[in-house]
Design a protein that fits this description.
The complex is a heterodimer. Chain A is an alpha+beta fold. Chain A has helices at about 65-80, 110-120; strands at about 5, 10-15, 20-25, 30-35, 40-45, 85-90, 125-130, 140-145, 150, 160. Chain A has a single domain (about 5-160), classed as 2-Layer Sandwich (60s Ribosomal Protein L30, Chain: A), CATH 3.30.1330. Chain A contains 2 helices and 10 strands. In chain A, the strands form 2 sheets. Chain A has a 5-stranded mixed β-sheet with strand order 1-3-8-9-10, with no helix packed on it. A 5-stranded mixed β-sheet of chain A has the order 2-5-4-6-7, with helices on one face. Chain B is of the alpha+beta class. Chain B has one domain: 3-Layer(aba) Sandwich (Chemotaxis protein chec). In chain B, strands 1, 2, 3, 4, 5, 6, 7 and 8 form an 8-stranded antiparallel β-sheet that branches. In chain B, helix 1 (about 15-40) crosses helix 4. Chain B is globular. The relative contact order of chain B is 0.26. The chains are: A alpha+beta, B alpha+beta.
């Protein structure tokens, strides 16, 4: 068994098998996994907001879907994985509270997922599986060894996507 | 007022600002604790509130772990103060409060029934309302609260909502955190988190003469 590397909120990290990556309690944030099944190298980001260009304080690149994904790709390329070999799995983007209004700040989960997909599409990275939306939190664990993304939720069965 | 104490954004808060925000938390939480105490007819102690400027990554650690199951009740604030107010309890505490309110003697830790969920939401509403009305009279500001929204889930997931609200402003979250505890063996504890927007911090601080 390798190490389990924890990725915090507005944080990202990379690893190679047998190590694994995890992020705990994803709510409206999105967990993005990029990996290459040949080298068994993977990266995970826990992004909070869709778009860095709309925010004044955007120094932390891991906070945003757009810059977070760019940085993740850069880190993986540095480890010798070309972008064209990367595929993605994403999870999170829930709406934790059942707000009745359509206030854009309150629907940030949905916007995070949309921005993530858009960014991945623009980089030609295919999303091979996802577990997004709904109204519950998720803890995710990614194992580069077999490409499994384990999703744990409260009061539901664990699942692998 | 000396210019040294002028409010210049979240990262420039000085000790005096912290003291004032702590006192705001103290008065709000004190009022809320009294309301809760009367509601379940039992004595509840409150700790001195902490005011902390935290990194997002550390936010969930306030309650122990990002995966701990908690009950979060959230109200949106408008009027003179924009932002959010969150009241958070551990699952077992929420269960204890509801059991006491409903007059259940046995230790029942099963999932909530519909009736209990709606009671819990109302408890959250009363407690948060007491907090906000104290804040409102202290500052003489008009604070309008939304209906309460409730979620029972992992602490990290629930806290992501206020964290994102702060995330638009910077990399840290200001937490006015008050904790209360029941003195008997049936422990009840929870946190209040007041999350005004950055502009509303200015409003609150200036209403108090800063």
């Amino acid at each position: 068994m390798g190490k389990m590397i924890r990725v915090g909120m507005a944080d990202l990290n990379v690893c190679s098998s047998p190590d694994a990556l995890t992020t705990l309690g994803l709510g409206s944030c999105v967990g993005i996994v990029l990996y290459d099944s040949t080298t068994k190298i993977a990266g995970m980001a826990h992004v909070m907001l869709p778009d860095s260009t709309r925010i004044r304080s955007n120094e932390n690149v891991a906070k945003f879907a757009d810059t977070g994904i760019d940085e993740l790709v850069r880190r993986l390329e540095k480890m010798g994985v070309p972008k064209k070999r990367l595929v993605a799995k994403i999870a999170g983007g829930a709406q934790m509270f059942a707000f009745s209004s359509e206030n854009s700040m309150l629907c940030v989960g949905k916007r995070n997922v949309e921005a993530t997909k858009e960014k991945l599409k623009s980089l030609d990275i295919r999303i091979i599986s996802e577990d997004t939306g709904d109204s519950y939190g998720r803890t995710i664990e990614f194992y580069p060894e077999n490409g499994n993304l384990l999703i744990k939720t409260v009061g539901k069965e664990e699942k692998i996507i | 007022m000396s210019s040294q104490n002028q409010y210049e954004g979240l990262n420039e808060l000085d000790n005096m600002h912290y003291d004032i925000l702590r006192e705001v938390g103290n008065i709000g939480a004190g009022n809320a604790t009294t309301a809760l105490s009367q509601l379940i007819n039992t004595k509840i102690d409150m700790t001195v509130p902490k005011v902390e400027l935290l990194d997002f990554t550390a936010l969930a650690d306030v309650v122990g772990s990002a995966e701990k199951i908690v009950v979060g009740i959230l109200l949106n604030l408008s009027g003179d103060v924009d932002g959010m107010m969150m009241f958070m309890m551990e699952f077992s505490s929420a269960k204890n409060i509801v059991n006491q309110l409903m007059g259940k003697a046995e230790k029942d830790l099963a999932a909530f029934t519909e009736l209990e969920l709606s009671a819990l939401k109302e408890i959250g509403n009363i407690i948060a309302g007491a907090y906000l009305s104290a804040l409102s009279s202290l500052t003489n500001l008009n604070i309008v609260e939304s209906v309460p929204y409730m979620s029972i889930d992992m602490a990290g997931a629930i806290l992501s909502v206020p964290a994102i609200a702060f995330g638009e402003l910077g990399d840290k979250a200001l937490l006015i955190e008050s904790e209360f505890n029941q003195t008997e063996e049936e422990s009840v504890n929870g946190f209040f988190i007041l999350i005004p927007t950055e502009k509303s911090y200015e409003t609150i601080l200036s209403s108090l003469g800063m």
